[in-house]
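WARN retry 2 of 3 for item q-0093 after timeout on previous attempt; input resubmitted unchanged.
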Amino acid sequence: MIVTPNRGEGGSEFPWLVREGCEPLESARPFRAVSATGVTMIRPPGSEGREHGWAMIPVCKTAEGFNPQTGSMDAAPFEPEGDILHFDSYRFANPRNQSIYSCRTLQFMPDGMMYFQ
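OK item q-0093 returned
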């Protein structure tokens, strides 16, 4: 599974796109929040990741997307766990500015923040 930011129409309401690794970008499904496991950051071949402004993308063993049916659209169905994961379009880094290439879990929040363990 691949999770990337949603820069298209409706991107602010559904900030994350999830798709199978072999699916074209157009088949990605939009979500408010995503919980992923078994994550490895890779540089995608060609322009696949750069279409979203990311030179690296997280490839996940599992990725479960959430869209609230009722209540606040800003609420995630889970509390953030772990450290904040920063991304500068070229690399993922922890709060100490050390590059991160893999993690057990990665949470993509409705406000665009990411948390990893």
